[in-house]
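User: Quick sanity check before I run a bigger batch. Here is a single chain. Can you write out its predicted 3D structure?
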Amino acid sequence: METPSHPSELLVRIENLSRLYGETLAVNQVSFELKRGEVLGFLGPNGAGKSTSMQMITGNLAPTAGQITINGFDLIDQPIEAKSCIGYLPENPPVYRELTVIEYLSYCARLHRIPSTRLRSALDDAMQHCGLEQVGKRLIGNLSKGFQQRVGIAQAIIHQPPVVILDEPTVGLDPIQIREIRKLIKALGKDRSVILSTHILPEVQSICDRVQIIRRGELIYHATIDELNKRGQGNSLTVAFRHAPPVQELQQLAGIQHITALDEHRFQIQFEPDDFAEQLVSQSVQHHWGLFELIPDNTSLEQIFVELTTDEHPDLGTDAEQAA
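Assistant: Done. Predicted structure follows.
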């Protein structure tokens, strides 16, 4: 199989993707692109169309309309070539508990038609990448949840696909296991395109390069993590003084739009100019206010997510919408 040349390293292109369940439009005109070396966080409340989108992108569900291109191959016109470029970990890892890790991964390698001459090296690479070298001969059913997730990721990358799609890869893990899986995902994203579906929002900010939010079948937010962080850095500060001046005196400072006293020492200040913090520090020194705390009020991804999806309740909608 000859892989098309891609100077721009564009590995995933989704154009106007839509899916109907009867008369219910579960996914509506979703479009995005993903390049090699990018990790995309794909978010959405229950029933938003996220799972339906993932199933279409992986070739497990036919779209009603739209185009999916994986590494230059059209998923509809060239399904075998396109799917060979995808590694997929569903929410419930498709592992066989009665097999050893090596037996299972060997089986997966044969499913991906890896030649027998490359089988050993493919197994070694996947197991080393996922930290499975010490458990290769153990039954999967006897492994911890974290190691079973690692086995699930290993089966997704054993054929070295350029695109990896992970659905809730850290669900049910303890904090140490979560940290290890996050490191693994970041490593995968260095030379692949990774789509990560998760409900753990801090996970997206720590792993992903970009984030997008789907709501009622439509993409309503799409930004890089840098853009998200800049959006979160609003013109608001929480400050504290040992010798706090009266609120009326603070209100005389140039650039203050609104000030709220939180207690006798702390204030929340909304301001206009970008250099306001420097001016405040200077004034505090000049008037001996004893400034000892200055904290930017940042908007988290969780706050943005809630603002954008707050009126969408998971108990509403049809069965088809819930399936999405």
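The chain has a mean pLDDT of 86.

User: Great, the batch can go ahead then.
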